[in-house]
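seq/struct pair 1
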Amino acid sequence: VIDADALCYLQRNSGFVDAEHQRLLALREEFLARCRQWRVPYLLLSDGRVFGAVAEGGAELCESDMANASCVAGAQFAAVEQALLADVTQQGLVLRTGPLIAAQGGNFLGDCLATMRGDAALCLNDSRVVYPTPVADLARVVSGLVDQISCGAPTRGIYHYNSSGAATAYEFAEVVCAFASQFVVPMASLEVGEDGESWVPEVPALSCDLILQNFGIKRLPWRAYLPRMIKAVCEETSK
């Protein structure tokens, strides 16, 4: 079972109200019990907000570091992870990732492109560092994990994956602007501001050494995915 429900929702939304969170957590625990009964491996997609806010300088956090969520979304991820890993008999694996970008749906890439079409200057934060992760790259990693799990690889524990290449909101927007200028005219100007727009969501940088050691999965740069995504967004918008 690949459980991406919480990740899909919480990458764009701050979280559920507590009553709804408790209801959904109870449903997931019931489903986990059925998976345990039938010995079905369970892969949960989570993200680094279980550790709290993004640190200045972008220090990378390891799987063994203590979770200390400071937002509703992070607390919800932590609760789901705990429910999965609480029973040592459960074949459960957690994959935490970074802030996702994609050609479809609401995400920081789409927000940047939408704002760049205006005439006003776009003010962005240039201090808080994250590792943006294309959805296509995350799908590659999940596929690699599933292939190895189906061949008997261990299905217990926590792993991290975010694409390579640290970027502040301003640095990312600069790259987006360079590619998008081929399709969008005029482009808004970019400015640096301490209180400017930052990543949504802001996910701490994750150390990805363990997934390389145990599964041989290497990090790929998010920049390699960007031209195709930007072209897809611009072509869809122009229809």
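seq/struct pair 2
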Amino acid sequence: MKKILMTFLFSHFSFLILSATPADSLRIQAKHLFERGYYQQSIELLRNINEDSLSIDDMRLRYDCFCQTGQTDSLIYWGKRVVKRNPMADIIPDLTYRLNNADKEHVNPGLVIEICERYKQQDATHILVNRQLADAYYLVGNYDLALRELANLEALGDSCFKVLYTKGLIFMNTAQYGDAYEYLSRATARHNDTHGYCLFMLGIAANKIGLGAEALSYLGEAEKLMVPDRKTLFRLHQELAESFRMKGEPDFRLQELEECMRYAEEKDVNTLTYQMGKCYLQLRQFDKAREYLSRFLDATKDKEYNNTTKSMRQSAEESLRMMMW
């Protein structure tokens, strides 16, 4: 039965392709590939449709494909073409969100304002569109219009974290600290006290209105949330140290190794001690070099160690002998 059904579906699909125009056949295949996750192949098929034959659905499919493949330039290009053809297109919430939150090269709140204001002429009650419009006005520093849109959202019943948080930030930027405290408090509660920067700004607002004890609590929680864990910080400084090693800058490498030592686990201490000793040797700070290399040798003496540690011990011993001359 399953075999019969698959044969029927294949025949039906083949019939649709055979009975369609060349452009329609490409559309059917491109859509089928998209639905199966072959986004780049779908794009390649769509490129074979003549420009003057492109439908809005073709543009939309290209937009969807480029969204899936993360090709920002292309998705913006096709998104703009879709919206030009249909100012009420259902991609608008997604496209404007991407434009508001893109990297510096692609962020374009001015275009978001243009798209959303045109949309509002037909429908002023779309919450997702209005959120992006409020964000766009905030991003360009037009706080009066951002507050207008945020008030409209609240009137529509939208009091999500983003609405409350953005309103709080605007009040902070305009030195209205009492209002900032109110909205950032509500935003923090809505986010279950887990948004580090919101807590940070709330702490500042609390200080500004004389609530020092509350501010300490908020800022303390913000610090916990905003500071990476020890393993992440260790890895970060380890990679920075490696970069300075490759650049031949032992002074900066040494600074990063010192930071690594602050976050190191016990198993990493000996290797760091050796590396710091070698940095001091390159910097011709021989007393420090002898201190660290000797410390490394003492820590690894009479212990089982792998080939890497064995090689480091040999190098440390050679360096100490060289400094004796």
